[in-house]
Amino acid sequence: MQHAGGSPLPPPHQPGHRPAVGWSPAAHHPGPHPGPAPVPPPAPGYPAPAPPPAPSAGPQHASMPPPPDTTGHVPLPPGGPVAMPSPPQSPAAHDPAGAIIAVLLIGPAGAGKTSVAKYWADHRRVPTAHISLDDVREWVRSGFADPQSGWNDHSEAQYRLARRTCGFAARNFLANGISCILDDAVFPDRPVVGLGGWKRHVGPGLLPVVLLPGLDIVLERNAERSGNRRLTDEEVARIHGRMAGWYGSGLPIIDNSQLGIPETARILDDVLTRSIASPPQW
């Protein structure tokens, strides 16, 4: 709605609501401001009234500054990159269950990344968040770029945006003492977009682990999916073949073909224990 002139009218007063600090009706109505009311002449036989007191030089009330950026009662600091874990000083420090860490779980569609990540986060002794790239990517409703309809610059841009959003969330969780585990299908033949991107978004202390079951298992799990997360068998086989490039990369790899979710999560803890003691070079 367009206003004829001046500033928009303030919101109507609601019962029980105090007016906004620093707002006065005169400040929102254009036109000349009336001066002080004229003083009538004294009646005959009476002294003239005393002049009004001069304005006080005391402190003037002004609008209060906006409150600092907070999330509930926890200050929200600017997220900084997570640093490389320090060398442990005792065997107890090797235990990842009580450490504040950031984990990147890598694997093809159908590897079980999301299920394992959720279970692992649910069963830690310290607060832990699970950040799924696919979930964040699907925040886009109208205009969602579905790679199943064809990979193009638009879908690539949305993937990059989702990764930056996940990285920002991870840094803020870590800054507030909350560990996080992220999952993504990162390809070894695209290091700048894959691991390089995550390292830029989260920091060099991110601990990557590859979850790579056999192709038959991945095809079987993919067949149980629905919606845009279910891929064709040809696409699943192509992705799985590219993921095989992680062998020989130096990153820890878990073959969970014959493992349930709890067993895979326990092995993930073992792998992270070694990664904390001797961080991988990537």
Do you know the CATH architecture of one domain? 3-Layer(aba) Sandwich
Across the major sheet, the strand order is: 4-5-3-6-7
CATH topology-level fold name of one domain = Rossmann fold
Overall pLDDT level: 74
The CATH class designation of one domain is: Alpha Beta
Low-confidence stretches: 1-30, 68-74, 76-80, 84-93
CATH superfamily of one domain: P-loop containing nucleotide triphosphate hydrolases
Class of secondary structure makeup: alpha/beta
Our count of helices gives: 7
Q: What characteristic shape results from the CA principal axes?
A: globular
What is the H/E order?
A: EEEHEHHEHEHHEH
The helix content is: 25-40%
Q: How much of the polypeptide forms β-strand, as a percent range? A: 5-15%
Task: Evaluate the radius of gyration.
Answer: 31 Å
Total count of strands: 7
Which secondary structure elements does this structure contain, and how are they paired or packed?
Elements: E1 70-71, E2 74-75, E3 102-106, H1 113-122, E4 128-132, H2 133-137, H3 153-175, E5 179-184, H4 195-201, E6 207-211, H5 215-223, H6 233-243, E7 253-254, H7 261-277
Parallel strand pairs: 3-5, 3-6, 4-5, 6-7
Antiparallel strand pairs: 1-2
Protein described:
The chain has 282 residues and is of the alpha/beta class. It has a domain at 100-277: Rossmann fold, CATH 3.40.50.300. It is 29% helix and 10% strand. The protein is built from 7 helices and 7 strands, in the order βββαβααβαβααβα. The strands form 2 sheets. It has a 5-stranded parallel sheet with strand order 4-5-3-6-7, with helices on both faces. Helix 3 (153-175) packs across helix 4. The radius of gyration is 31 Å and the shape is globular. The relative contact order is 0.15. Mean pLDDT is 74; it is low at 1-30, 68-74, 76-80 and 84-93.
